Amino acid sequence: MSKRDDLIAIYAADLREKCGVTADMDLLTKVTIGLGPAIYNPDSSVVSGTQQSEIDTIRANFLVRKLGLKDGPELKAGIDKVLDSYGRSNRNKHRAVVYYLLTRHFGRESVYA
């Protein structure tokens, strides 16, 4: 298995164990590939749910730019819901898992079709 495959298995386990979600492995793989080399960097591979700058980046770069959503209060509510389901106290929130959950939350799986 490649390093990426190993990471995808970790992400699927996080979804199952921490979020109670059975992953759509095809979508999870596409979201992970979409993150490119960021998944291999210890700093960029995780999300800090307590830093406003991180939340702003997720909103602007992922939700608006990548998923094509209109900016508004529902984006922050979606981010909050995903971070709550992943566990705010969980220090290792993998970016791929957060982006997967956001994609599913907003029903934008077609972006990765």
Could you describe the 3D structure shown?
The chain is mainly alpha-helical and 113 residues long. It has one domain: Recoverin, domain 1 (Orthogonal Bundle), CATH 1.10.238.120. The protein is built from five helices and two strands; from the N terminus they run H-H-E-H-H-E-H. A two-stranded antiparallel ribbon has the order 1-2. Helix 1 packs across helix 2, helix 2 packs across helix 5 and helix 4 packs across helix 5. The longest helix has 17 residues. It is globular and about 40 Å long.
Quick tags:
mainly alpha; 2 strands; two-stranded antiparallel ribbon; Recoverin, domain 1; 59% helix
Short structural description:
The protein has 113 residues and is mainly α. The protein is 59% helix and 4% strand.
- Mean pLDDT, to the nearest integer, reads 95
What's the main sheet like? 2 strands, antiparallel
**Cα distance spanning the termini:** 24 Å
Side-by-side strand order of the widest sheet: 1-2
Counting H and I runs of at least 4 residues, what is the number of helices? Answer: 5
- Helicity range: 55-70%
**Which regions have little confidence, pLDDT < 50, spanning 5+ residues?**
none
CATH homologous superfamily descriptor: Jann4075-like
Tell me the number of structural domains: 1
**The level-1 CATH class:** Mainly Alpha
